[in-house]
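Reading a protein record of the kind used here takes only a little practice. An example makes this concrete, so a full record is given next.
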Amino acid sequence: MKCQLITAPTIEPITLAELKLHLRVDSETLAGNVTTYQSILPGSHVVADNYTTHAGTAVEVIGKQAIVNLNAGTVGAGGTVDAKIQESDDGTTWTDVTSGAVTQVTASNDNAIQEKAYTGTKRYIRVVAKVLVAACEFGADVIVNAATTAEDDDLTDLITDGREAVEIITRRALLTQTWEYYLDEWPAEDYITLPFGNLASVTSVIYKDSDGTETTMTENTDYLVELNGDQCGRIVLPEGYTWPTSDLYPSQPITIKFVCGWTAAASVPKNLKRAIKFAAEDAYYHGDRHETLTKIIERLCASYRLWEEF
C-alpha cells in the first residue's frame, strides 16, 4: 500500500491527565495541581434576559480535568439565575455543553454552591448566565486540575506513540487526518476501496497521463463516494461510467486525497482508548510487562481491526 500522511490529528484520543491517572503518576502537591479561574466575577449582576450580558471569560482546559462552580449569593426578590457551560475550539465560536446547565438559582436555593464537571474535549470553556426579575449575587469559577511532572513532555509523546501503535494493529486512522493514496493503475472493479476506515470525505482524485498532464476528476459526476460508517469507504463509478482510458504516467499516476478518522476524542471506542493507555504504559515502563500488555492490547483491539488488503 502506497500512502502518505498529509495532515496528522490535532488532538489525541486520551488526555495527559487520563494517562497519568492510568499510570498513577503525579508528583505535585494539591496546591500545585489545582488552579482556580474566575469566569464570571463575583458580585451583584443586573437583570439581563440573555446569555451575552453575563458571558464569562474563557478558560483553557484541553487535556485537563475541569469543574465549574456557580457560587450564588443572595438573589433579589423574585429573582432567578440561569447559568450553563459553553465550549469552544477557538475561543470565538461557542456552543452549549450537553447537560451543562446548573439548577436555576432562586430564593429557595441561593447562598450555596453548585458544582458541574466538564467532560467534553474542547480547548476552552466558559460560564454564561441570564438574570431575571431582580439583580442577583453570584460568580462562576472554573477549577482546573493541571498536574505537572518533569515527565509531561515524554508522557505526551507516549500518548501519540500509543495511538499510532493501536492504529497499526487495527489498520485504522483513529482521529481526523488527511492521507494521499497512490495507485499505479485503475482497478478491474468499478470501485476503489480506501484504507483506514471512517472515511469522512474525498478531497480529490487526480490522474496523470503518459505526457505528465494531470486531470482532476469531479465527484458525483466522474465518481461517487461511499463513506460506509466506521468501515473502509469506497470510490465508486456511476452507472454506465468507466475509468479513464488514457495511457498513464509510469510512476504513481493516480493520487487520491482523503480525510478519515473519528472527528472527536469522545467518539473513539473505549476499548481503543484503553489499548492506547496500555501501549503507552508498555513504553513508559520499558517492557517490564511487555508480554502481558501486548496480549491485553491485542485483545482490546481485536474487534476493531479492518481486514481489507491493500
Observations:
- The two ends are 5 Å apart (CA to CA).
- Residues 152-170 form the longest helix (19 residues).
- The mean pLDDT is 93.
- The chain has five helices and 17 strands.
